[in-house]
Design a protein that fits this description.
Blueprint (H helix, E strand, L loop, with lengths): L1 E12 L2 E8 L6 E6 L4 H9 L5 E8 L9 E12 L17 H6 L1 H4 L3 H23 L3 E2 L5 E2 L11 E4 L2 E5 L4 H6 L6 E9 L12 E10 L4 H22 L1 H7 L11 E4 H9 L13 H13 L4 E5 L21 E6 L2 E8 L4 H10 L8 H5 L8 E7 H9 L20
Parallel strand pairs: 3-5, 6-10, 12-13
Antiparallel strand pairs: 1-2, 1-4, 2-3, 4-5, 7-9, 8-9, 10-11, 11-16, 13-14, 14-15, 15-16
The structure holds adenosine-5'-triphosphate and magnesium ion.
């Protein structure tokens, strides 16, 4: 057996050297036991090797297993490929905690540590699970442009890009494009970056984050979409529990399965619940961060970790949501997990005239949305969808306190490298 990786820990006890290698074949380190009397050459080499070296070793699983940290090996051969030029700037076994800033800067090294690695193995698992889920249900994966001419939510939150002689922006959401595709492919999904130029500095916002987006056509109302989303999330949770049990254990996370259907709360009901707790939301405004948190506490007490808020008023939503007959509410919903919004979605307006009206009502110029509106002229079915934040979902599944823990390379207000 030949295994490759990096030395993350080395201990020398007189006649024995113990080396832990973090490789890619398991979450836990491989433990190399080198004895002076048994393999004198390797013992000598092992004593000299620095933590951080990139090596491969050949050997077999040892019949004696004493280490609790990983599988022990009897080693026949070690090849050294690269040794560190400087001592490592971070501790890759996680004994010496580093500040978040340092951890972000050197995350590519910290990923040698099983705990750090587990977070991002699970991230990959979430994406893998989402893809499986959608493919099993006949959704087609699509890729929509990330350089766009108009944003779904209006100008203030867009990063401008010079695009030859045109003004362009980085896409904040695949919203408009996935809707246009409802004219021909009634079930699509996309795993995509969102670029948002808000100057926030919070523990739940990034300027480049990732979303799992879906859109489906021929729906009756937003309930069809909510069903897809709740099934997706419980599928992801089950998948991670099953396929990443060891990673969860390394992280010390007990991930509870979620039962569907999720609880539904009406926006108006939420406003009343918050009001009786002393939190007043001005009429027609979105929930604040603090309000979301408070609601989370109330709901967890009642035994609901995850719940929908439905029927957002038109005043709080994007232009593309379907208005209800009362003219006040819409088919927009949020999904909150332990007091944090992790997804938004709903039924969209598919009628051309109403959509033009909606744009005007929101103070947007229909001229700028011509390419989008055009798609609604040729048999657009009723449709709806959602955008689910990958990092937000990870935060709540894994109990991460800061969204910057959920993405390898961070783009926020002050970070443009590494
Ligand atoms: P918030 O109000 O919490 O800032 P939003 O309502 O503006 O989020 P949406 O446009 O609804 O965000 O995007 C869909 C989902 O994408 C959100 O529910 C969230 O999970 C995620 N998301 C959106 N913006 C960000 C961001 N800046 N950083 C991290 N995740 C984000
Ligand atoms: Mg939202």
């Amino acid at each position: 057996m030949r295994i490759c990786g990096w030395i993350i820990r080395k201990k020398v006890f007189g006649r024995i050297v113990i080396i832990e290698v973090s490789g890619d074949t398991s979450i836990k380190p491989h433990v190399l036991v080198l004895k002076r009397d048994r393999e004198p050459e390797l013992f000598k080499l092992g004593k000299e090797l620095d933590v951080g070296s990139a090596i491969c070793f050949e050997g077999d699983v040892s019949p004696i297993q004493k280490s609790k940290r990983g599988v022990e090996y009897l080693v026949r051969r070690i090849d050294v490929y690269s040794t560190p030029l400087d001592p490592l700037p971070v501790d890759t076994i996680g004994k010496v905690p580093a500040l978040l800033d340092t951890r972000i800067k050197y995350r590519y090294l910290l990923l040698r540590n099983p705990v750090e690695k587990a977070v991002f193995r699970i991230r990959a698992g979430i994406i893998e699970a989402a893809r499986r889920f959608f493919i099993e249900r006949g959704f087609m994966e699509v890729h929509t442009p990330k350089i766009v001419a108009a944003g779904a939510e209006g100008g203030a939150t867009l990063f401008p890009v010079k695009y030859f002689e045109y003004n362009a922006y980085l896409s904040q959401s695949p919203q408009l494009y996935k809707q246009m595709l409802m004219a021909s492919i009634p079930r699509v999904f996309e795993i995509t970056p969102y670029f948002r130029a808000e100057k926030f500095n919070t523990t739940r916002h990034l300027n480049e984050s990732w979303g799992i987006d879906a859109e489906q056509g021929f729906i009756r109302d937003e309930e069809d979409v909510m069903k897809t989303l709740e099934e997706l999330i419980s599928y992801i949770v089950d998948y991670i529990r099953r396929s990443y049990a060891e990673d969860l254990e390394v992280l010390g996370v007990e991930l509870k399965p979620l039962t569907t259907p999720f609880k539904r709360l009406r926006y108006d009901e939420v406003i009343d619940m918050l009001s009786s707790e002393g939190i007043e939301i001005p009429e027609g405004e979105d929930l604040t961060d603090a309000a979301e948190k408070k609601l989370g506490e109330i709901m967890v007490e009642k035994g609901y970790e995850i719940y929908y808020i439905v029927g957002f008023p038109w005043k709080t939503t994007g232009f593309y949501y379907m208005r209800k007959e009362d003219g006040i509410h819409t088919g927009k919903f949020d999904l909150d997990y332990k007091g944090l919004e992790i997804a938004s979605g709903g039924q969209r307006e598919h009628r051309y005239d109403k959509l033009v009206e909606a744009l005007k009502d929101k103070g947007l110029n229909p001229e700028n949305f011509k390419f989008y509106l055009e798609a609604f002229k040729y048999g657009m079915p009723p449709h709806g969808g959602f955008g689910l934040g990958v990092e937000r979902l990870m935060m709540k599944m894994l109990g991460l306190q800061n969204i910057r823990e959920a993405i390898i390379f961070v783009r926020d207000r002050t970070r443009l490298t590494p």
